Structures are given as C-alpha cells and as structure tokens.
Amino acid sequence: xxxxxxxxxxxxxxxxxxxxxxxxxxxxxxxxxxxxxxxxxxxxxxxxxxxxxxxxxxxxxxxxxxxxxxxxxxxxxxxxxxxxxxxxxxxxxxxxxxx
Length: 99
Prior knowledge:
By secondary structure, the chain is mainly β. It has strands at residues 8-12, 28-32, 39-40, 58-62, 70-71, 74-75, 79-83, 92-93. The model has no long low-confidence stretch (mean pLDDT 88).
C-alpha cells in the first residue's frame, strides 16, 4: 500500500478539533484506542485552527487490530468518517467495525 492508496477521511463532524474546518485538514490521522470505540488519535482541542490549507486527510495509521478494515495496521476501508463519540473521547472513527 502506498500513500496514494491510503483511505481518505471523507467526513469529520467534530467541531472542537483544531484540524476540522470545512473538513479535516490534517495530512494524516491515527486511529487508536484499545476498548470500545476507535478514537481519532489526531484530535487536538484548541480554538486555533491548523493543518494544511489544501489537503484531503488520510488514515496514516490504525492501531485497532480488531477492526475488519485493518490489514497489518493499515486501513483498507474505502473512506473513513470521523465524528463525536459516545464514550469519553470526543472524536471517534465511525467506520470502525469489530471483527
């Protein structure tokens, strides 16, 4: 898998993230967490917006080996949606699907 084949972050609805302004502007996100929902490890809760101006965010790494889209720690989903989580972490990978 090359960087051009990494799945895009097709949607982010987490308004409190510094990288989210009219979509995710991080170059790549990391999906993390160990139990329950899959957390967006790139979430940064600052009022200042950041990231790259023109970018389609991608999934750079996924440490959720229990996800059906995880192949050798690489995400194989066609696209990833990030949104507010039901747990204590404010940003979750909504595409996460346990094996």
